[in-house]
UniProtKB/TrEMBL annotation:
Pfam families: ROK
Organism listed in the record: Neomoorella stamsii
Single GO MF descriptor: glucokinase activity
Family in the record: Belongs to the ROK (NagC/XylR) family.
PROSITE patterns (alphabetical): ROK
Xref: SUPFAM superfamilies: Actin-like ATPase domain
The keyword Transferase appears for this protein: yes
Name this protein carries in UniProt: Glucokinase
InterPro entries linked: ATPase_NBD, ROK, ROK_cs
Keywords, sorted A to Z: Transferase
EC number(s) given by UniProt: 2.7.1.2
Keyword check for Transferase: yes
Length: 323
C-alpha cells in the first residue's frame, strides 16, 4: 500500500494549453505516480474541471484523501492571484478569472494552493534543481507559451498585479505577428513551440522544401514545434534556420531581462527546451552579444533539472510552503 508507514503525500497539477499533468509526490520530493491528459480547451471549463477531477482520483488511487494527502497545488499559465487562488488571465486555456482554488477545494475537501506555472517551476528549480544555492534566479519555460518565474533575494517576485515574470511578452520584433496577449512581436509570438511551427509552415507554403513535409505526410496543419526541432536535429536546413531564429529571439529577450534584474543564473525549461544545443547555442550567442559586457561572464544560462516536470513539482511543493 502507498500509505503504509504513515507516509504523507501532496498532489501537483500542472494545467497548460495542451496538457494537464498531475503527480502524486511523497514527502521526500519524489514523484510516485503521474497521469496526463490533453487539455480539452475547445470543450469548455466544465470539461477541464472534469479532467482535473479524474486525474486526481487516478494518482491518489489506494489512498485516503483526507488522511494521506496534505494538500493540492495547481500551477497554470498566466497571471495568478495566489492569495485568492484565482487564475486572472488564462489566455492559453480560454478562461479568465478562474476561481480554481474554490472549485478544486469543493471537489476534494482539501487545502488547495494556486500558482503561476513558471513561478511553480522556479520554486522547484530554486529549492532542489538547477538554481539551488542561488539567491537571484530567473526561470524561463519554452513550450506552448513562453513564461518566467523570478526569484529575487530568495523570494518569488510577483509584482503589483501578479503579472511579473511574463517574459513571453517582452517585445523582440516591433512589427512582428500578433500575440494572444493583444500586443505584437512578443517573444512568445515568434519563438514558442507553436510560433516555431508556424514560421516553418509559412516558408514551406511559399515553396521551400523541407523534410518536415514528409514527416507530416504533406499535412502541414500537423506540424508542431517538436517536429520542427526533430527535423533540425536530423540536419534539415529549413528547420535548422527556423530553430536558430527561435533561439535568437529568446536570447534577445533574456539579455533585456538580465540588464534589468541582474540575476546569478537563468534556468531554461519547458518542452521545447529539450532540444538542447539546437536551441541553447543560438540563444547563448545572441544573449552574450546583447547583454551588458560586465555581465557576460557572470550570468549562467543552464537547462532545468526537472525538465517538463518542473511546474508540477513546484505545484506539489506549494502545500508545504503555504500550508
Amino acid at each position: 500500500m502507498l500509505a503504509e508507514n504513515n507516509a504523507r503525500f501532496t498532489i501537483g497539477i500542472d494545467m497548460g494549453g495542451t496538457k494537464i499533468l498531475t503527480a502524486l509526490v511523497n514527502s521526500h520530493g519524489n514523484i510516485v505516480r503521474t497521469t496526463r491528459y490533453s487539455t480539452a480547451v475547445t470543450e469548455g471549463k466544465d470539461r477541464i474541471i472534469e479532467q482535473i477531477t479524474q486525474s486526481v482520483h487516478e494518482v491518489s488511487a489506494g489512498l485516503d484523501l483526507g488522511r494521506d494527502i496534505i494538500g493540492i497545488g495547481v500551477s497554470c499559465a498566466g497571471p495568478v492571484d495566489p492569495e485568492n487562488g484565482v487564475l486572472v488571465q488564462g489566455t492559453n486555456l480560454g478562461w479568465d478569472n478562474a476561481p480554481l482554488k474554490s472549485i478544486v477545494e469543493d471537489r476534494f475537501k482539501l487545502p488547495v494552493y494556486v500558482e503561476n506555472d513558471a513561478n511553480a517551476a522556479a520554486i522547484a528549480e530554486y529549492r532542489l534543481g538547477a538554481g539551488a544555492g542561488s539567491k537571484d534566479m530567473v526561470y524561463v519555460t519554452v513550450s506552448t507559451g513562453i513564461g518566467g518565474g523570478l526569484i529575487l533575494g530568495g523570494q518569488i517576485y510577483r509584482g503589483a498585479n501578479f503579472a511579473a515574470g511574463e517574459i513571453g511578452h517582452i517585445i523582440v520584433e516591433a512589427d512582428g505577428p500578433e500575440c494572444n496577449c493583444g500586443s505584437r512581436g512578443c517573444v512568445e509570438a515568434v519563438a514558442s513551440g507553436p510560433a516555431t511551427a508556424r514560421r516553418a509552415v509559412e516558408r514551406i507554403r511559399r515553396g521551400e522544401t523541407s523534410a518536415i513535409i514528409q514527416m507530416v505526410e504533406g499535412e502541414l496543419d500537423k506540424v508542431t514545434g517538436e517536429i520542427v526541432y526533430r527535423a533540425a536535429a536530423n540536419g534539415d536546413p529549413l528547420a535548422g534556420e527556423v530553430v536558430y531564429q527561435s533561439g535568437r529571439y529568446i536570447g534577445i529577450a533574456l539579455a533585456s531581462l538580465v540588464n534589468i534584474l541582474n540575476p546569478e543564473i537563468i534556468v531554461i525549461g519547458g518542452g521545447v527546451a529539450k532540444a538542447g544545443e539546437l536551441l541553447f547555442k543560438p540563444l547563448r550567442e545572441n544573449f552574450t552579444i546583447r547583454v551588458m559586457r560586465s555581465q557576460r561572464e557572470k550570468v549562467k544560462v543552464v537547462p532545468s533539472k526537472f525538465g517538463s516536470y518542473s511546474s508540477v513539482m513546484g505545484a506539489a511543493f506549494l502545500p508545504y510552503l503555504t500550508g
